[in-house]
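Weekly puzzle thread! Below is a chain. First person to post its structure in token form gets bragging rights.
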Amino acid sequence: MDGLEQQYGSQLVVKRINAVEGDGPAIMRGYRVQGHPTVLMFDSEGRETGRVIGSQPAAEIEAVLKEAL
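Winning reply:
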């Protein structure tokens, strides 16, 4: 994901959530995240626009990211 963060950095904000500590469990439940890792994409209004579940190659994440942007 780091390469995509650098490539699209001006177009997105990346937040990492710890699934077992702090607010992580509540956030996971709220977004119905069941698999780890999961990448959620949101528009500027906070609506989910994309989701990638499980370990995926960067090209797969980038394809969903391009649709979300």
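Puzzle host: Confirmed. Bonus trivia for everyone else. The chain has a mean pLDDT of 89.
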